[in-house]
Amino acid sequence: MQGDRTDKRDTSAFNTWKDIIIPGNVDDGMTANGARLVDPLPLSKRKYLANFLGRAQGKVGRLQLIELAKQFPDKLESPELKLSGPDKLGRAEYFKHLQNAKFCLSPRGESSWTLRFYESFFVECVPVILSDQVELPFQNIVDYRQISIKWPSTRIGPELLDYLESIPDNDIEDMIAQGRKVRCLWVYAPESESCSAFTGIMWELQKKVTQFHQSTETFWLHNGSIVNRDLVEFSKWKPPLPLP
């Protein structure tokens, strides 16, 4: 699965016990060593505070971002994407749009996940998640608080831009630097690579084995709750672990 606890019909589509979240397949042009289509810009050279690159798809959050960009065109870039025809946005141009802001906004779309979140790590803008029920991959390994922001989708408006504008560049640089350490987990690289999406997937599968309710480190109580050795319910665990 990729991305969200709900599907297009807003019904449950994720089972904690048997499902895992895997990252989307990022364009090779963003990740290939020595062949990247676009290199990240220094923060001081980025034109916009934030951007949203995507179609409205009739989604409230996306429509709000498009309207917000009209109100604050100097802060939020939201160009109309041409996905077909002679004016279709090319890959290199698309990446250049992404890299030209400090923050890349990632709202819920028609599907339950979006590539924008993963792509932001390679153009080195801080992803801002605007999808309340999102499920991200490898949450027991990656501390997403260090590399991204999650903002309530019900509070999309000038308040969001004010908040982002208040964040010092030093803090943004720190988040970007932390993101560089883990972005290899979004890449479906060859087995010879020590860090890849496959590595993360294997970690997740191993975790499912060791935390299955028959595990020697798993216990249950009279009320049906499943707990660990410290009598903490699985749902109340407080990973993820800090980044090294």
TrEMBL record:
Source species, domain of life: Eukaryota
Family indicated by similarity: Belongs to the glycosyltransferase 47 family.
Ranges where the Exostosin GT47 domain occurs: 37-156
Compartments it resides in: Golgi apparatus membrane
InterPro entries reported for this sequence: Exostosin (IPR004263), Exostosin_GT47 (IPR040911)
GO cellular component entries: Golgi membrane
Membrane topology recorded in Swiss-Prot or TrEMBL: Single-pass type II membrane protein
Gene Ontology molecular function terms on file: glycosyltransferase activity
The entry's keywords: Glycosyltransferase, Golgi apparatus, Signal-anchor, Transferase, Transmembrane
Protein's UniProt name: Exostosin GT47 domain-containing protein
Keyword presence, Glycosyltransferase: yes
Stored Pfam families: Exostosin_GT47
Record keyword DNA-binding present: no
